[in-house]
Design a protein that fits this description.
carboxypeptidase, 12 strands, Serine-type D-Ala-D-Ala carboxypeptidase, about 300 residues, Beta-lactamase, Beta-lactam/transpept-like, six-stranded antiparallel sheet, two-stranded antiparallel sheet, about 25% helix
């Protein structure tokens, strides 16, 4: 979907959108590959991989001029099992501009956390010896043929990237110029569909997603696995993730059983309601996820 253009402007197949939190399943795909290879252990404390602690950037969206940081000691990381970063049960907040620490006992309940995925980014870089852009390019974008996808805004895709649009119809410029494992993916619908297909084609990774899922809303049949939300409506389980950046809304859902699904990328803050219509057309069921309060 394109907004802020002429009323019926078509979107080309190579139009690039900010996918916001649809970044997280990309990072989880890498992390669970490393688990399968024995290089990461979801039960191990984060301190195993960051024994000298973690330098937390307090405003990761502030641009290069904002470099406020705090030091998270290894003793704090020792309280956080690695797997809790993937399923949002680490106790870390979504975002904080202050010192980073768990707000409750890690593993005890669910709380959505972008900070957890940025911490996971540091873990992946530590165990691979590479920056997260290189790791994702080598393990995801290149082998899956995601030719138009990047983990930040780069010059080679700039001409394909659509501007965002506010709820009032104004143009929004919110460029993600630094890689952020929680929110900085630039991609096309076709590229992201390749990622969905890769998840479905890998039963080992799917099994890891489902293990020790944390309940998010029992009444709606929702839980969170390692990298994906899980819905247990009729015909499920379904994997899903939503995305919300200034000027952009995104949603992806796929049925593990039927292999049907969809990717919604919009450059409009009014784009999210389209997800329910697409779900009805592609994976018809009574989807409780669209009543989930966290969607906003």
């Amino acid at each position: 979907m394109a907004s802020g253009c002429s009323p019926a402007a078509p979107v080309g197949a190579d139009a690039v959108f900010q996918a916001a939190s649809l970044t997280k399943p990309v990072i989880a795909f890498v992390a669970l590959q490393l688990v399968r290879e024995g290089r990461l252990d979801v039960r191990a404390p984060v301190s195993r991989y960051l024994p000298d602690g973690y330098t937390h950037r307090q405003n990761p969206f502030g641009g290069p001029q904002d470099r406020r940081v705090d030091a998270v000691p290894a003793s704090t990381l020792a309280r956080i099992p690695l797997g809790t970063l993937l399923n949002h049960s680490s106790g870390l907040p979504n975002w904080t501009r202050g010192p980073l620490a768990p707000e409750f006992e890690p593993g005890s309940r669910w709380q959505y956390s972008g900070e957890g995925y940025v911490l996971l980014q540091a873990v992946i870089s530590a165990v691979t010896g590479q920056d997260i852009e290189s790791v994702v390019a080598q393990r995801v974008f290149e082998p899956l043929g995601m030719r138009h996808s990047r983990l930040r805004l780069t010059d080679d895709i700039r001409a394909q990237v659509l501007d965002g649009t506010s709820r009032l119809g104004g143009r929004v410029r919110f460029d993600m110029r630094e890689p952020n494992a929680a929110a900085s993916l630039y991609t096309t619908a076709a590229d992201y569909a390749r990622l969905l297909a890769a998840w479905l084609a890998d039963p080992t990774l799917l099994a890891l997603v489902m293990e020790q899922a944390v309940s998010t809303d029992v009444a709606l049949g929702l839980a969170w696995g390692k990298g994906w939300g899980i819905e247990t409506a009729a015909g499920g389980p379904y994997l899903w993730q939503w995305g919300n950046n200034p000027g952009f809304r995104a949603f992806a859902m796929v049925s593990v059983a039927s292999r049907n699904g969809f990717v919604l990328l919009t450059n409009s803050e009014r784009g999210m309601p389209l997800a329910a219509s697409l779900a009805h057309a592609t994976v018809p069921a009574e989807h409780g996820v669209f009543r989930f309060s966290a969607l906003g």
